[in-house]
Structure formats: structure tokens, C-alpha cells
């Protein structure tokens, strides 16, 4: 982005309590309307500095990393195990795509350049021009990973639910309807679906250089596409559409799908039990690959509905009508809940899928033997 001659005052006092300097979700969730009075914005700034720094610091440097780092390790481990199993099974393709999206979000949510910008003395990048541009580029990369990973991981469970619906209701036609190639195409579309929104969000921020204490400091600031009243109304519409498309609608579809899959599995199991004469046969039936796969994916979707449903209701509480303190706390809680959502799938696989357990145990044992001889 080109260097501009704008000063901090030209950007209005709202920015100090709202946009590009904090970590991504906190920034977006706590935006204040450009039409609010300067005195209210200044009051919000005082509250954020005096009362919220500790809260932000605890969430940014303690709570989120404690959840996201184990989750990132788990998602990478899931990809390794799924690669060992191969991608001839459509369920493996979907789970791998979900692991990639979750890993991207967990990396992006720990936006180190944003922390450096927000929590340094006097706010901003206190480095040379080249270093500021490098840090800003890294900030944009983390931002992209967080946004794209979040939106994609919220829509992929819909594909997982559809795949399971076809598998349990049309088991004989399933190999013809749901093929690995079609599944891969659907996954690519799910990722590309959010590309225009990522491009739009890119133009909401810019890097400018301002005078601060006699030195030039690089600052991330909102552009006119957020500052102008007309463009701000566009931003609000886009943001609402993104929330609706990525949270309540997928949650509703996944919830209905999970119920239908669960009912069908129970009915099929009851019917199978009546046909069996020995208890051991029933036990073996529960251990079939189809049964394990269905319950694994079903549990993934149930946890998704609970965590993202919670995040959605928390987002409904964020408003300019409530205190700035409440908005910041709610935004931080939303990020933490979404980190939990993106971190727990690996543990679901380990808990419910025996093949996954055995493969992971084999990989871990091989790694220990390899490094134990050194």
C-alpha cells in the first residue's frame, strides 16, 4: 500500500477504540459507528486504556494460545493420520479440508504483528519504513488466515452433513452420487466462496506513517471504505450477510441434518438387532466402518452446532447500545469459543474412531523409536 500523508487526527477519534490496531475479531466486533459523538468515542478510549488492557492481554496472550496451540498440533496430527488412511474415502477429504481450515484460523488468531502494533508503547510499528511494511504484510497474512479459515470451517460441516445424509439414506447409490472428485470440487468451492469477502476486507485497512514524539511511526488505520458514512453502511450490510451465511444458516442445516442422520442410524441399528440372533453379532455391527464414520462425523457436527451456536448468540449481544467494555469482553469470548471449536475435532477422532486411534498410536510409536535411537 502506498504511503500517505494523512495524520492520526484526520482519521477521527473512533479508530482509537475500534479497528485495525487490535487483533482481528476484537477489532471487527467492537467497531463504533462513525456517527457517534467525539466525546463518547473519547470516553470509550479512556475505558479501553484504563480498564480493558488487562482483559485484552489475558485473552490475547494466555487464553487463546492455551487453546489454539494444542488445537493446531491436533489438526496437523489429523492431517497426517488422514493422509496415511488415504483420500479415496470422501469423509477423509472432508475431514482433511476441515482440519486445514481450522489450522488456518488457529494460526491467524494469534496475530503477532497485531500484538506488536497494539501493545507497544504509543501504539504502532516503531521501526524503519521497510520493517513496518514487512510487519504490515505479515499482519495481512495472519488476518487472511483467520478470516478465511473461520468462514470456511463454519461452512464445511454443511458438506459433511450432506455427505452423511446420502450415506445413511441411500447407501447403495452413495458411491455413485458422492465421489472423491465431486467432494473435492465441493470443498474447493467452499473455500472460493469466501474469496470476494476476503478481498473486500483487505481494502478496509491501510498502513500510514504519522509523527509521534518526534519520530515517524507506522500505524494500521481504517480506510475511507470504513470511515465514510455511505461505505460504513455497506460494511455493516456485508458484515451482517457474512454472519448470517456462516453461522445461523449452517447451524440450522447441520442441526436438522444431524437429527435426521441420528434417527436413521438408530432405526437401522434397531432393525439390525432384530435380525441378529447373537449379542456378539450386534456388537460387531456397531464396530463396522460405516457406523464409526457416521458417528464420528455426527459428533463433529454436534460440537460445531453447540460452539458456533454459542458464538452466534454472543455476537448478538455486541451493539453500540451496550458499554464498550461489554463489547470487548464479548468479542474476546467469541474468539475463545471459536478457538475451542477449531481445536476439538482431533480429540473427537481420537475418542470415537478406533482406526484413527491405532494409526495415530502407530505414527507416535514410530516417531519415538526413530528419535530414541539418536
From TrEMBL:
Primary localization: membrane
Membrane-spanning ranges: 57-82, 94-116, 151-172, 184-203, 249-267, 295-314, 326-352
G-protein coupled receptors family 1 profile domain segment(s): 74-349
Keywords: Membrane, Receptor, Transmembrane, Transmembrane helix
Cellular localization per UniProt: Membrane
One GO cellular component term noted in the UniProt record for this chain: membrane
GO molecular function, one term: G protein-coupled receptor activity
Name the UniProt record assigns to this protein: G-protein coupled receptor
